Amino acid sequence: MTTKTKKDQGFIDIANKAVDMYHSKKEDLIPILMQVNQEIGFVPKEAMEQISLRIHVPQSQLYSVATFYHMLFTKQTGRHVIKFCESAPCHVVGGREVLDALKNKLELEPGETSSDGKWTLTTTSCLGVCGVGPVIMVDEDIYGNITPNQIPDILAKYE
Amino acid sequence: MKNKRSIIKGTLPAEQRVVLKRAGIIDPDSIEEYIVHDGYFALGKVLTEMKPDKVISILKESNLRGRGGAGFPTGTKWGFVAGTKADKKYVICNADESEPGTYKDRLILEGDPHSIIEAMVIAGYAVGADEGYIYVRGEYKLVQTRLLNAIKQAKEMGFLGENIFNSGYKFDLHIHAGAGAYICGEETALIESIEGKRGEPRPRPPYPTTNGLWDKPTLVNNVETLANVAPIIRNGAEWFKSFGTPSSAGTKVYNIMGNVNSTGSIEVPMGITLRDVISIYAKGLKDGAVLKLAQTGGSSGSIIPADLQDVPMDYDSFTNAGVSMGSGALLICSEKTCVVDLAKVLLNFFRFESCGKCNPCRIGNQRAYQILLRISEGLGSMKDLDDLQDISKWLYEMSNCGLGQTAGSPLKDILKHFRAEVEAHIVKKECPAEVCSMSGISPTSN
Amino acid sequence: MVKITIDGKTTEVERGTTILNAARDLGIEIPTLCDHPELTPYGGCRMCLVEVEGIKTLQPSCTLPAGNDMVIHTDTQKVHNARKFILSMIFSERNHFCPSCQVTAGDCDLQNAAYDESMTHWPIMPNWQPYPVDASHPFIILEHNRCILCRQCVRACGELVGNFTLAFEERGADSNLIADLGLPLGESSCISCGTCLQVCPTGTLIDRWSAFQGKETELDKTKTICLGCSIGCGIDVLTRDNRLVRIEGDWDAEINGGVICEVGRFLPMVEERERLLTPMIRANGKLKAATWDNAISAAAEKITASKGNISGVASTRLSMEALNEFKAICDAYDTKSIATTEEFSAVSAVFDLAKSSGKAFESKIDEIKNADCYLMIGEDTTKDHQVISFFAKRQIPAGSKLIQISESPSGLDNFAVESLIIENNSQSAFIDAINNLITNKSGDTEKIAKTFKLNLSSLNNIVEVLSSAKIVAVIFGSRTNYDNAAAVLGSIISLNNQINGKLITTKGNINSVGASAIGINGAINIDDSELIILALGDEELSQNFSKKFEKSPFSIIFSSYISPLTANADIVFPVKNWLEQGGHFINLDGHIFEAKAALEAPEEVISCEESLSKLANVLKVKKQRSWKELVKETPAPVTIS
After folding, report:
1. B255–chain A Cβ distance below 8 A for any pair
2. Residue C91 falls inside a structural domain
């Protein structure tokens, strides 16, 4: 039996808090996972084990749900997650050049996290702000009408 | 089909705000302002003056059709749920809005959240449900906040909960947020998601109208559809039919985007043509470019060439022309758009969003994407066109749900209307629009 | 009833029947890849799509209910083209290179489906991300690259066994089979039941030993009974050239419906003990090979000389026929005690209670398959009699609640709503206390909770669950010592009556009931005997139990395998193991089964029944009454038929 580290215990506490918030109802698995994801930045294994125990959902089903929904991460992300919209409406108004600018500036391919742990670059489907494409989202902030030369200033806002 | 009522020769159709009447005018966080602007009046009328089947007959009379994309007659759907005997029923508002190019529901929910609450209570009363869910996509955080606030206010004022308007009728409403899956816009996948599972669509039949949430009869309606309910109740079915076309009554919100001068949203009577949208509202294509194609209804919609831009945009006219209107998204593209590149982006969307349950969609989208990728690198062959044609045909014929069934539409349309351009990539190793990389290097992605 | 026409043939079926099943009734096989008669339909592979008149697109026959007057075509060009498309898609998705696969040429549903459509090559080139092979499990190999993502294994692991180890991660083309939170199968919560192996249509999930051992279509198949425990699951034993290849659950068997556990499926594959191949007699301190006749004579001589001072011990893995012969010999020579090899299984206590009550009080296995509460007392059914735990666990998604009471933690703790640790010898008092609370609808719950060191809420929950459940299955068993087995049983029976429960005691081995039913269930007492006759068969005794025989002056052993026991014996007879012998057995709920031999024994090895019969003949033992008669006369806790 592996000893729990303090970090593990923190994850377990956050999981318990999320479960309590939804009164341990197993049909609220997705909001529970989203709550944990919100607090930690992803859903760690320790949290999933605890949630599984508390709401009586088998671990495999929990993992299956957590990996199905793309707003949930099961691996550690960077401090800031960039979501670039790669759907058609953003693409036809110059999306590709913006993505190239992002990839070059960050030196990351979509799906990768920078080695200093600051950035995770991902692509995403339509965010629902198609009137102002191209669009990127950094954490909870949405930026529209993006041109490639705006990228450095936007990224500079984040620690 | 001639639209006799709203398009009079020589006159331009103006916006007619029904669902977006209050959006941008009132403070969405103020229930008082909502009430001042005719809010909860329809609900009061329904609960104090009408029996449930009267409500349904008004809806049927109004010819309101589902605004999520399918265009199913709303009154008929309500009738199915009302007619199913059960000890428990549900009403669900589908606010998952993930169709690329579509953000009309967000405008309604952010600008006029109470309109949906009111509509759901009316719907619940009409079909015999006492509980409802609004399924909001996870990315719409502001919508979730505004709705939670609106529900709290409605409860405090007695428009939700026990004994609404002293009628004895009770209705509880919950918000359920999604977590990033386009497929959850499909009604049975949405229901699976509310039940805490993967969003994998169920086999139909049985339909949600008889076996939905927790296997109980469930009404699922799109946001824009519901936003029409209270106006119809207040003003009557005849009023609603007085704009739009005989097959498609009422208004439609269109989201305009692409290579145009002015992007944004409009709410106009059904039946406007694409030409009018571009010239009047989009203010023409950017830099004087020429219209090459438009994609209507989002990524799963039809790709229509310029020569169809005079077809009235209503359900039946479009169906007769072999295209679909869908959600009301209008992606307008000039010759700067390459059809191979566009198809590649669209197929990438479908393969990313496919739930993976059924073979044609899970594998077909992946194969089609890879083929288009190779074509865009100048490595295509004529067999690829046959493969793409096959995949698109069988996607429609065999997929388990609408995502798979419509994923093949862009392929079908592009091969029908723009085959020469695709062939140029293969035979001449050229991208006429000068978009595709045509590098000759085999793509490593899969 | 609805009327449906398929390929010109018309039939009437019950409303709700799927087109697939209606077609089967008519003898029309519609190909499927994700469907299985024992699993809920999935509707994912789309192979079963057919033309339905009046509906524009093809429809899935596995999920579409037959509608009245539906007209269906399963054999049109369109349908065949559709199937070819699905197959070409699947072949392009992962590594389906048939020539190097262990299930090629007859055993693979994918390959067979392709041949049925006259496909000869891949129409679309495969292009996929290779997955690593998961060989972490002791028995099962998971070759992801052959997977067709049909989800039969996932559904089987959940619906048939209730373990839910398997699921699918990600979505779309990234979908993949995983265990628990993405662990290798060998590190997961997998209980090695192997049901996934049985349902997997391709070579994705295979067992280590039977791979490449022969096409299923060329193997010999024997339908028989697993003798691993008292349940008696129906199995198919697949053999080739008189060698065991694989054991599978028999889908048609009533008791288990196709599921078996690791004890039945895998343990026989890892049998490492050496066989006894010839009779042996000890001479000058050493065991020497002898002929059957000589060895039987020597045994008869010793038995006659020791009359009255003999102990007989029989394995409860022996058939009724063998046990009957054994008893006849023991009775004829006034054995001091006649006992079985079972430790602690409480079966004798159960039979004693039956004697005093005069009638059967246990239920049948079928009655506990749909309970809404399972009260498990004593043993850990995830280790012993595992199929019972499958029946219980798989009901949990439907709302069934499990309660576990035992003196140590059990594998059901994660599944149970209440899991209590109570010492064996305190369980009787605890069950009485629960009974009182339920009967009187009140009581000093705080005191009871304190006495048995429980949470008050747990106690209340148990009372609530037991009081309100419609069908309660009460399962009692033991492989550890109960000083007061009779008392515990008495308490359990009393509680069972109060809540109208369905009681089943798991007893022990396959023929525990059979042995008791003909009078072989006394406590083992071999200390003062001059001679011990041990009819061991193929059983493996625990070290503790074997120690009892260390000091015996003279032992005659009938055994299949060499062991320290046989090494110390004086006369040894080699007998058939369970795969080589037939015979009748009576399982835990009173079913009389006949097992069939699947293999031939080595040359000088005969069945235990035959060898005992030889001995009885030489001893001139009077013809015994038939075991069937004896069984009828013995009061038993179960109705035997």
Report:
1. yes
2. no
Residue B46, SS3 per DSSP: helix
CB contact under 8 A, B355 and C60: no
Handedness of CA B194, B195, B198, B199 (dihedral sign): negative
pLDDT (tens digit per residue) in B6-30? 443 433 457 889 999 999 899 999 9
Interface test with C, best of A53, A59, A65 (most C CBs within 10 A): A59
Contact B345/A70, CB-based, under 8 Å? no
CATH of the domain at C619: 3.40.50.740
Task: Specify whether C383 is located in the same domain as C425.
Answer: yes
Contact of B339 with chain A, judged by CB distance below 8 Å, is answered with no
Stated as kind and residue range, the H or E segment containing C267 is none
**One domain for residues C529 and C490:** no
Q: Which domain holds residue C61?
A: 2-75
Q: What ipTM, to 2 d.p.? A: 0.95
Token code pair at residue C130: 């290779």
Scanning C169-222, the segments in alpha helix (DSSP H) are 195-199
Chain B nearest C-alpha distance from C250 (Å): 29
**Count of domains for chain C:** 4
Given C58, C75, C92, which residue is the final one in a domain? C75
Q: Is the bond preceding C37 in cis, omega lying within 30 degrees of 0?
A: no
Mean pLDDT (whole number) for B305-316: 91
Instruction: Find the mean pLDDT for residues C514-520.
Output: 92
pLDDT tens digit string along C338-377? 899 987 768 888 888 888 888 889 999 999 999 999 999 9
Q: Is B400 on the interface with C (CB under 8 A)?
A: yes
Same domain, C490 and C547: no
Contact (CB<8Å) B397/C57:
yes
The domain spanning residue C58 has which CATH number?
3.10.20.740
CB nearest A59 (choices: C170, C171, C181): C181
Interface of C with B (CB under 8 A): 41-46, 49, 57-58, 60, 63-65, 82, 85-86, 89-90, 92-93, 124, 127-129, 149, 168, 170-175
B413 and chain A: CB distance < 8 Å anywhere? no
A105 contacts: CB under 8 Å, gap ≥ 6: A151, A152, A155
**Beta carbons of C172 and B362 less than 8 Å apart:** yes
Give the Cα separation of C617 and B183 in Å (integer).
77
**DSSP letters for C521-538:** -BPP--TT-SEEEEEEET
Which whole number is the average pLDDT over B38-52?
96
User: Do B103 and A128 count as a contact with CB atoms less than 8 A apart?
Assistant: yes
Look up the pTM and report it. Answer: 0.94
Give how far Cα C575 sits from Cα of C204, C402, C539, C583, C612, Å: 38, 42, 11, 14, 10
Over residues B215-265, the pLDDT tens digits come to: 999 999 999 999 999 999 999 999 999 989 988 999 999 999 999 999 999
The shortest C-alpha distance from C470 to chain A (Å) reads 22
Total residues belonging to chain A: 159
Interchain pair A92, B258: CB under 8 A: yes
C394 and C500 inside one domain: yes
Digit-coded pLDDT (tens) for B264-286: 999 999 999 999 999 999 999 99
Say if residue C266 is in the same domain as residue C305: no
Determine contact: B35 vs chain C, CB below 8 A.
no
Strand order through the sheet with B131-136: B172-177, B131-136, B90-95, B218-222
Q: What is the mean pLDDT of residues A111-124?
A: 95
Instruction: Report strand pairing: C592-595 vs A119-124.
Output: unpaired
- Tens-place pLDDT, residues C281-329: 999 999 999 999 999 999 999 999 988 889 999 999 999 999 999 999 9
Tell me how far apart the alpha carbons of residues C511 and C533 are, in angstroms, rounded to a whole number. 19
> Is residue B102 packed enough to be buried (19+ CB in 10 Å), middle (13-18) or exposed (0-12)?
buried
